[in-house]
Each structure stands twice: as C-alpha cells, then as structure tokens.
Amino acid sequence: MSAIRVDAGAGRLFFGDLDMPCTIGRGGVCAAADKREGDGCTPLGIWPVRGVLLRPGKAAAAGIRLPWRWVREGDGWSDDPADPAYNRPVHLPRAFSAENLLRDDDAYDVIVVLGHNDSPPVPGRGSAIFFHLSEGRPTAGCVAVERADMLRLLPLLAPGDVMEIV
C-alpha cells in the first residue's frame, strides 16, 4: 500500500518522488466528522482509492492498474441525503439530486473515486469526494491536479493505495 499525501495547507500533493500543486475545496479542510453536504470542505483523513472513471475520448486507460471503467451517458453520483443511493453511482435522470459525471468542463475527464463516507454512507456527511482534474479554482470538496500531473500519477497507483489529506 502506498499513500498519496495531500498537504492541504501548502496546496501540494506527494506520491513517491512526485511533488505537484493541488487544489482543495473552496471551504478549506475540515475533520471528517464535521463534513456536511454542500459545505465545500475537503475532509481530512485517510481515504481508500476505490477506482477510476474515465471519459471516452478525453482520457486513456493504458497502464492503469486500478479498477476502472468508461463514464457513459446517464452516469451520475447521488448527492441528495434523502436518496437511498446517497453517495453512490446512479443513473440519470433521477428523482433525487445527483451530479452528472459527463460535465461540460474537463474536470471529470479522469475521476479517481475516494472511499470517503461510503462504508456505509451516512446521509448528509458528504458525497462525491473525488480526486480529479483541476480547473484552476477551488473544488466543491474534492482534490484536483492538472491533467499532465494526473496522467503521470495515475499509472503509478495500485489497488490498496490510499489518499491521506492532512
């Protein structure tokens, strides 16, 4: 097991010899127990790396050792605490609120799913905490890096790796 270390205060991400700038949530960081849906806070802690979602035509799967799949039309992620599928992948359209994983920007061309609040999900404690591509501004609570940095890091990750946000 290896750890991707995020130094939120310094805005840096480290993995082995790699050292790169990263972006966190617009609300800064918070203790995982204090994380609330929509607060823009990146939760402190150690989160398992669950797998990767890739946008066809925007990202390549070559060399990825983590479990991965292509994002398809209708793929979403529930962010509605009233949804029985809260903080889980869902199919859109849906009666409950959910993020569309096929965004108009490039942020979700590569999504590394983190195991925050997923075992089991506690409604309202935060959903869709991902490691994804940066858009040059704070995230809604995720960790993000530039595309070139993500593409350097992605093939180095393996099942069992974690992200430590400090």
Automatic annotation (TrEMBL):
Pathway recorded for this protein: Cell wall biogenesis; peptidoglycan biosynthesis
List of catalytic residues: H132 (proton donor/acceptor), C142 (nucleophile)
GO BP of this protein: cell wall organization; peptidoglycan biosynthetic process; regulation of cell shape
One Pfam family in the UniProt entry: YkuD
Record's keyword terms, sorted: Cell shape, Cell wall biogenesis/degradation, Peptidoglycan synthesis
Keyword Cell wall biogenesis/degradation: yes
Domain L,D-TPase catalytic: start-end pairs: 1-166
Alphabetized InterPro entries for the sequence: LD_TPept_cat_dom
GO MF term set: transferase activity
Protein name as it appears in the record: L,D-transpeptidase family protein
Annotated source species: Sphingobium fuliginis (strain ATCC 27551)
